[in-house]
Design a protein that fits this description.
Helix content: 25-40%
Strand order of the largest sheet: 8-14-13-12-11-9-10
Distance between the termini: 52 Å
Number of strands: 21
Oligomer: single chain
Number of helices: 13
Largest sheet: 7 strands, mixed
Strand content: 15-25%
Structural class: alpha/beta
Shape: globular
Radius of gyration: 25 Å
Length: 463
């Protein structure tokens, strides 16, 4: 019996071993590359490419991934890192009673796209690449990456960048904080009030309260300040459009000479929303994570009209982190080059179709329910696709409709579904945000749990 198990183990690992061996042989026997109009010999990149290909070839049953920097057991190859509800050495074992993870905004829904574009998005970087603090022009910003970002916005038509300044940050989180500092009044005896309209992204409040700056203080819901008489009080309003959590296109609530606005356009891409017009606000923030799915690369940027505000944000980034990692900028540069192939139609087509299918499945799952409802947003004309289209938000903003279901998060938790409480967005506890942008495994498990929950509701009605 022991011999049989050993034979099965060896035979099951043989295909993977052969594939890895084949990859390495191919790399070793084809050590040439066509560059600059002529064939050149590969040298130092061979080993790096062989290592990357070998790890990429490790089988995790389609329910996980092995990574070059992953945990290594027994000094051998990196182990598989399994998706939620899967376990085992090759992630092939499903955990039947595990909870569906619909909490975080981890944009893994785009992972299959990058698997289809492995060659064009891959990087092999020398150990001496960009060791300096700055680029040759003594700035912390790659001019080529900036050029690609401007080209990207022009193709998508979601933001005006002509005669605007661009600053980079470690994800939109750092950019948003830098923007708040730059827009705060100088030499003021009282801090600027920071507001956002409910429901709003919790990070706005969390950052302001955590850093506890004398320059600004969080003051809650923008609507509560709309009719107040303190006309000379400096105010900074965060506007998320499309909004997180409900996906609606929003506008500023407050106006006046004392009001400054930061537009967070993290989700203003064809994956999630019709592109209705090119945004042209004074300060607009974007992030790589919701564009390409690479949240871990920590790269974001702001498009700014005012040079003085731009200089203040550059100064903040310089003091805070001496700019953005050159490695992150290189990765973003490579990813955007791939994304812009074919005028962006491939990545946006993949993203939109994926989100559209997920919303169709979610809507079907809840269509017969009187207990739960979803946000409703009217279709709008999209300039990117030149047609009227539905919204396909990153999140479902679910409301529990029964009077007794005051804590919607607890209701879903009891059904093995983990979302994010409405109170985190300063909304009622009758609301829960469900993330629809995680891996396909996560989404499939979510739908399975919702179908079971709704079927119990129907069974209750027929009794």
């Amino acid at each position: 019996m022991k011999g049989e198990k050993m034979t099965k183990s060896v035979s099951s690992s043989m295909p993977v071993a052969c594939l890895v061996y084949s990859v390495i042989l191919n790399l070793l026997f084809i050590p040439n590359i066509y560059a600059g109009g002529q064939w050149k010999n590969l040298s130092w990149s061979l080993k790096a490419a062989a290592e990357a290909e070998a790890v990429a070839a490790i089988s995790c049953s389609g329910h996980g991934k092995a990574f070059l920097d992953g945990l290594v057991v027994d000094g051998n190859e990196p182990v598989c890192e399994c998706n939620t509800c899967y376990t085992g050495p090759d992630c092939s074992q499903f955990i039947p009673d595990c909870s569906a993870d619909a909490d975080s905004g981890d944009p893994l829904f785009l992972e299959p796209f990058w698997m289809q574009h492995e060659a064009s998005s891959a990087l092999v970087v020398a150990g001496w690449h960009r060791m300096s603090y700055s680029f040759n022009d003594n700035t912390y910003i790659s001019k080529e990456l900036e050029r690609l970002i401007r080209k990207l916005h022009a193709i998508v038509g979601n933001a005006v960048t002509e005669n605007r300044f661009i600053v980079f940050g470690a994800g939109s989180a750092q950019v948003l904080n830098a923007a708040a500092y730059a827009l705060s009044p100088e030499n003021s005896t009282s801090p600027a009030g920071v507001v956002a309209s409910v429901p709003y992204y919790a990070l706005y409040r969390e950052q302001v309260e955590y850093f506890s700056s004398e320059k600004f203080k969080f003051q809650g819901d923008a609507y509560a300040w709309k009719n107040r008489s303190e006309g000379n009080t400096a105010t900074i309003e965060f506007v998320t459009s499309p909004n997180n959590p409900d996906g609606r296109l929003t506008k500023a609530i407050l106006h006046g000479h004392n009001v400054k606005t930061i537009y967070d356009h993290a989700y203003y891409w064809p994956h999630f929303t019709p592109i209705t017009a090119a945004a042209d606000e004074d300060l607009m923030v974007f992030t790589l994570s919701k564009l390409t799915g690479h949240a871990g690369s920590r790269f974001g940027w702001a498009v700014i009209k005012d040079e003085n505000v731009f200089n203040k944000m550059v100064r903040h980034m310089s003091v805070n982190s001496i700019g953005v990692s050159r490695d992150s900028q290189l990765r973003a540069f490579k990813l955007l080059k791939t994304a812009l192939e074919g005028e962006g139609k491939e990545i946006f087509g993949f993203g939109y179709q994926t989100m559209k299918r997920r919303w169709e499945r979610l809507t079907r799952a809840l269509s017969s329910s009187n207990r739960f409802s979803l946000q409703k947003i009217k279709p709008q004309y999209c300039t990117f696709y030149n047609k009227v289209r539905e919204f396909s938000p990153a999140y479902a903003w679910v409301k529990c409709e029964r009077k007794e279901d005051k804590d919607c998060y607890a209701v879903l938790q009891a059904a093995n579904i983990t979302g994010r409480r409405g109170s985190i967005f300063s909304a009622e506890e009758r609301y829960v945000r469900l993330s629809l942008i995680r891996s396909q495994d996560d989404f499939d498990i979510l739908i399975k749990r919702l179908n079971k929950l709704v079927s119990k509701e129907q069974g209750r009605r027929t009794r």
